[in-house]
Design brief:
By secondary structure, the chain is of the alpha+beta class. It has twelve helices and 20 strands. The longest helix is centred in the N-terminal third of the chain and has 15 residues, at 90-104.
């Protein structure tokens, strides 16, 4: 049998939908929804055994923000292989082809949410950030101080461009935040009986938005639960206005699950017993598809100056490994070939350091970075220090 990886074609839709149903759906058999927003066909690949579709991979056109700069990113998603063909190298071949395509498109990063980490580690991905979730009592949200000067009103799909513009204005101050195309963001704005979009405005200007839905609750004496899909606020008053909207459902929904940043101010406002970290939090993984372009494209602290001589190991592209010299000065970074290769690191752990998820000292402590002396570790720690990397959206 011959395995072939090829571009997705429009007549693959039925086969790919059946693969997704078998891989991800709790209730297989749902009909394909042709109106669901999706990525372009040119960013999808399929795997065939002798002409039969057995696998699929997609790559959203995303961006990650690091150091105040946006880096083009392939958001790997819907990596599916039929159960009968698993363990035969189909997923690995799809991933290799997807990363080759990302490199050809000039996307220096690839990121994904893994169902199984070891598969992606073998291809150079490593943990790089979190999609954090918390469960909060709605009564506590209702008790927060009500802000003045912020009005809330229903929104919808027509407001998407304005909502994305607000997100993009705030993203550079975060680490890892996603820049999403409208096709990606629109998936959370599909109107439904139990879904709502809420906009917060001050003097007519959009300062926050909230997208949430009702869900079944496991708590006794609860009509429903709330799950927030999107929550963005320019400042404290905007956030408080949106939290009050959620709190208004306290009589029917005792709690709400929502994405919150690692240093979210909500923890400063709520009593401790009103906040519970949720077990559904996910870690995402990142891959440096082009390490030199990633280093050059990221922002770095202006006060950090130094160099590190690295011996880079890349399991997917061994020829791109070997000695590299990293130099940072004046907020700019450069990775060029050559040097002594004194500090050995694989491309996966290098991504954990690049995003700020793991310091160089921590990587060295656990054997993921070897041969680095104390000055090198101190330089690398200072270069990638900053807010913990996270994203608001799952993909």
């Amino acid at each position: 049998m011959t395995l072939n990886i090829r571009p997705y074609a429009s007549d693959d839709v039925g086969a790919v939908h059946r693969l997704a149903q078998r891989a991800f759906s709790p209730t297989p058999g749902d009909e394909f929804d042709p109106d669901r927003p999706s990525m372009g066909d040119d960013r999808r690949l399929v795997a065939e055994w002798d002409g039969r579709v057995v696998g699929h991979l997609g790559a959203w056109q995303l961006g990650h923000w690091f150091g105040g700069q946006r880096l083009a990113t392939a958001g790997i998603t819907n990596v599916t292989v039929e159960p009968e063909s698993r363990g035969r190298g189909v997923g690995g071949a799809l991933l290799r082809a997807g990363l080759d395509a990302a490199h050809d498109r000039g996307e220096p990063l690839a990121s994904l949410f893994p169902l199984t980490r070891h598969v992606y580690r073998r291809k150079g991905f490593e943990l790089a950030g979190v999609w954090p979730q918390a469960q909060v009592t709605t009564a506590a949200l209702a008790a927060l101080p009500a802000p003045d000067g912020v009005e809330v009103h229903p929104g919808g799909a027509d407001d998407l461009d304005e909502m994305l513009a607000l997100e993009r204005s705030l993203a550079p101050s975060e680490a890892g935040m996603l820049d999403r195309p409208a096709e990606f963001a629109a998936r959370n704005l599909r109107p439904g009986i139990h879904d709502a979009v809420v906009l917060a405005r001050r003097d007519g200007e959009l300062v926050g938005h909230l997208v949430y839905a009702h869900e079944r609750s496991s708590q006794d004496h609860a009509f429903f639960g709330l799950r927030v899909k999107e929550l963005v606020g320019r400042d404290a008053d905007a956030l408080l206005a949106l939290y009050h909207v959620l709190g208004s459902s306290a009589s029917g929904a005792p709690s709400v699950t929502l994405p919150v940043g690692p240093e979210d101010p909500l923890e400063l406002w709520l009593p401790e017993q009103a906040w519970t970290a949720s077990a559904v939090s996910w870690r995402w993984m990142c891959r440096l598809v082009d390490p030199a372009a990633a280093i050059a494209g990221r922002g770095w602290p202006d006060h950090v100056r130094g160099r590190a001589e690295l011996d880079l190991l890349d399991p997917l592209w061994p020829d791109r490994g070997g000695p590299w010299t990293l130099e940072i000065e004046g907020g700019q970074g450069q990775l060029r070939r050559g040097g002594s290769g004194g500090a050995r690191i694989e491309v996966g752990p290098l991504a954990s350091w690049f995003t700020g998820w793991a310091s160089a000292t921590r990587l060295a402590r656990y054997g993921k970075l070897t041969g680095a002396d104390e000055p090198t570790l101190a330089f690398l720690d200072a270069a990638a220090a900053g807010p913990a990397p996270w994203v608001r959206s799952f993909f």
